[in-house]
Amino acid sequence: MPVRSRKKAQFVAVKGIICSMSETVDNTQPNKATQPVKAQKPEPVQGPETTQEVKAPPKKKLGGRIGRFFLNILIFLVIIGLGIFGGYQSGIGIRQQAQRDLTSQQLNDQFSRALVDIQFGNYNAAQTRLEYILEINPSYPGALEKLTEVMVMSNMPTATPVISPTPELIVDDSNYEALLAQAKQLVAAGQWQNALIVLDTLRAKDSSFHTVEVDGMYYFSLRNMGVDLIKAGNLEGGIYALSLAERFGPMDNLAHYLRENARFYIIAASFWELDWKLASEYFYQLSGSGIWDGTMTANERYRIASIRYADQLLTEENFCGAYEQYLVAQTIGQLDAEAAGRSNEAYLGCYPPTGTAEPTLAITPTIDPALTAETPVATTEVPAATTEPPAATPTETPTSE
């Protein structure tokens, strides 16, 4: 190959390499129209004695993270507290509404029973119910008017009702209206047991038939039957009847008083002949109540228990305590001969007689002051005896004039 052709080929190759290198440089440089080149500050020339300051990387702010953590917890607790408070308020509202509904239901029931009491002439019980209603809700509709009516009617003289003979029970129990009328007639006649039989039949056939009216007659019959049984001495039967009546309405003061006394009488009688002290203490609290068990009144049992307790104390030689119990028994009733004798024995033991001492004359000795004076000491000198007899003293003979 000639030399000229070889140089020309080398020149072409070098030219191609230069062109390719220029294109590569153009592609890697930024676009001057869109990205202007910022002037770079000349780096300071470090001398041999100067050292380059190395800046530490920025530390992460730990306090900021902890603050955000506790802030999130606080927000969470506030949300929970608001939820609990809202639920508590909602629960209180529900409970108060339920209480209002229950109270309203009870007042409606008491008003219905008061109307039944008015219908049967039981004005005292009706007045008690109406006063209870007005105490809870003074604005209850119709309660004040009915109370005024009851107070007027209870003070009006009423004629003695003529009670018809006890009607026979209706056999046809399919006629509910007839059963209800029969029950009313029996209640008006005071036949509580027969009235309850008719009411049980009617309630067994249809429990939803005149519910309020039937409940009122149940209460009236059971309450009066319980009072009559306790007054007759059937304490357990009366307590049971009044407990059943309490299912239909609250007890009036008289029924409650009789039931409590009956229960207390049964408790006191459980100590009879077992512990005379407790028996006397329990029957003392019932003295004057007039309650009895068909055999003895509470006063009579209190008297007997006091005597038996006094006998026990006398046996233990507690004379004063025994005499006190005999006196308690004597205030209730007369002591029999044996009890009176034991009472005298207890009295003598508590206040024993003492012997009467004879009066003695107290003599106070008196001492002669002369005896207390000092006596002179006798001398030993004795006078000398004289031999000459003493001269006779002449005497004048009295002359009578």
Structural account:
- This protein is mainly α.
- Among the domains are: 68-154, Serine Threonine Protein Phosphatase 5, Tetratricopeptide repeat (Alpha Horseshoe), CATH 1.25.40; 176-350, no CATH class.
- It is built from 14 helices and no strands.
- It has helices spanning 3-28, 62-119, 123-136, 143-154, 176-189, 192-205, 211-231, 235-245, 253-269, 276-286, 298-315, 319-332, 337-350, 369-372.
- The longest helix has 58 residues, at 62-119.
How much of the sequence lies in strands comes to: under 5%
Secondary-structure element series? HHHHHHHHHHHHHH
Overall form: elongated
Characterize the biggest β-sheet: none
The rounded distance between the terminal residues' Cα atoms is 252 Å
Structural class: mainly alpha
Oligomer kind: single chain
What is the arithmetic mean of pLDDT? 77
What is the tally of helical segments?
Answer: 14
DSSP E strands, number: 0
**What is the CA-atom radius of gyration, in angstroms?**
62 Å
Fraction of residues in helix: 55-70%
Low-confidence runs of at least 5 consecutive residues: 30-39, 45-51, 158-166, 375-401
Overview features:
single chain; 401 residues; mainly alpha; Serine Threonine Protein Phosphatase 5, Tetratricopeptide repeat; 62% helix; elongated; disordered C terminus
Question: How are the secondary structure elements laid out?
Answer:
Layout: H1 3-28, H2 62-119, H3 123-136, H4 143-154, H5 176-189, H6 192-205, H7 211-231, H8 235-245, H9 253-269, H10 276-286, H11 298-315, H12 319-332, H13 337-350, H14 369-372
